[in-house]
Amino acid sequence: MDTDRRQFLQAAAAALAASPWLAQAAEPAAPAAEPHDMSAFPAHWHGQEQIAMLLYPGFTALDFVGPQYMLASLMGAKVQHVAATLDPVTSDTGLTFVPTLAMKDCPAELDLLFVPGGGQGTLDAMRDDALVAFLADRGRRAKWVTSVCTGSLLLGAAGLLKGYRATSHWIARDLLAEAGATPVDARVVRDRNRITGAGVSAGIDLGLTIVELLRDRLYAQSMQLLAEYAPEPPFNAGTPRTAPKEAVELMSGMFTGFVAGSRETLRRRHGGG
Amino acid sequence: MDTDRRQFLQAAAAALAASPWLAQAAEPAAPAAEPHDMSAFPAHWHGQEQIAMLLYPGFTALDFVGPQYMLASLMGAKVQHVAATLDPVTSDTGLTFVPTLAMKDCPAELDLLFVPGGGQGTLDAMRDDALVAFLADRGRRAKWVTSVCTGSLLLGAAGLLKGYRATSHWIARDLLAEAGATPVDARVVRDRNRITGAGVSAGIDLGLTIVELLRDRLYAQSMQLLAEYAPEPPFNAGTPRTAPKEAVELMSGMFTGFVAGSRETLRRRHGGG
């Protein structure tokens, strides 16, 4: 590293230390001790993105929090956790979150809309006309429309994936065809301004992909390092291709009602896809 | 698969479908439609664990939610999200959680205690005598004492890692020596009943490790499949060994104050480790 580069990094690190999480969440843990010194960073490391991440009853918390870790790192961005109202929202695993913004107060023009998945809660959300109308409205105008897991079924219910390649949780991926999308078996799928992730843990990969798009590769690599994202799954069971047959049967059987209900709901909303 | 095995799986999947998240969180998203049929499962798939997961201001949400996804899957277990009081707790990325239990109401005899990490918030927690005393008390008696990321510094501050091998976020790992522990560079480290994970995303690996210990391998593999945990990091920057030097310098520089403060706090609590 040359001296200039090293001096830049030292100044940047010092500025970051004053305020390690630089996206402005509406209700930060504590205000930064002092405004960070923006001049320490390359201009393109700053943004002014308006980001809305959707919360709804029964969503999967891990779908949401992987991307949130990454998006909250975007200097200058404003990340909102948006729900129907400001009432606390409980996830499918019983974790309760306090939203920062109600849908009615969500900016009309978003830079990025993010939707997490879930099971029965996601199916209920697909059937919720107000929620689907909100997604259709904000998604139609957002610069980036993104999801993890069965969040893509919600995007599909809102008509936002018609004509796009997209992915979802392995249990639900084929259902995307009912929303006029082309299902793709991949960890993260980008088609124009739609970026969809596979099931649950794929949110970390999706988040890093977005950070690189909105900032640059070094920024995203730094976030991967901060998350110590060098995964070592203790088994090789993360996809139906590699998992024991018993596990596939057990997990598929758990969601037959969800799959049937989602298919019916998407058909009803799209007249057959 | 033989017919008996298939029948078991079909019955088990049907029972699971009635209540996909089977740990009893104190405030579930919605009560299960009907009690699941316990007779569909092998006896050792049920537990009665009392699990306490700690929330404190400025913790890292992803440290918490990876393990929470896995622990919430443990049939029969009771998972509590414990904080000083029932007031909402905001993470370092501005995500606000509602606890299910205040420390004073936490069972004295826990099967599993889990502590997430963070930055400044974790340092503040290490300096919080009431929180450290709570951890020392519950940790001394718990069957399993676990952490992710700099959560192990908090365990160390409470005297729970003295004489144990343990790990932490790469930024903080060497500090464990100040608490009388032997730092180990590994994703998940188990020494007797202490199980510690590396930084942030290691919580998923830790969670699966715990599910196998408390249930069995098929159970854990099923959860890996449900989480679609077949990671594909877009870069190879997850550890200081593989990340670009610039990223390592930037992220290390961000935490010099945290490291110095943590070292001072651990020395004060342990008289030099």
Q: Could you outline the blueprint of secondary structure elements for this entry?
A:
Two copies of one chain form a homodimer.
Chain A: H1 3-17, E1 50-54, H2 61-71, E2 78-83, E3 89-90, E4 96-98, E5 101-102, E6 112-115, H3 120-126, H4 129-141, E7 144-147, H5 151-157, E8 165-166, E9 182-183, E10 188-191, E11 194-197, H6 202-214, H7 217-226, H8 245-254, H9 256-270
Parallel strand pairs in A: 1-2, 1-6, 2-5, 6-7, 7-11, 8-9
Antiparallel strand pairs in A: 3-4, 10-11
Helix pairs in contact in A: 2-6, 3-5, 6-7
What does this structure look like?
Two copies of one chain form a homodimer. Chain A has 273 residues and is of the alpha/beta class. Helices cover 37% and strands 14% of the residues of chain A. Chain A contains nine helices and eleven strands. In chain A, the strands form three sheets. Chain A has a seven-stranded mixed beta sheet, sandwiched between helices. Residues 25-35 of chain A have low confidence and may be disordered.
Mean pLDDT of chain A: 91
Task: Quickly give the CATH architecture of chain A.
Answer: 3-Layer(aba) Sandwich
In terms of DSSP E residues, the strand content of chain A is 5-15%
The biggest beta sheet of chain A is recorded as: 7 strands, mixed
Sheet with the most strands: spatial strand order of chain A: 5-2-1-6-7-11-10
Give the structural class of chain A. alpha/beta
- For the record, what CATH class of chain A applies? Alpha Beta
Oligomer: homodimer
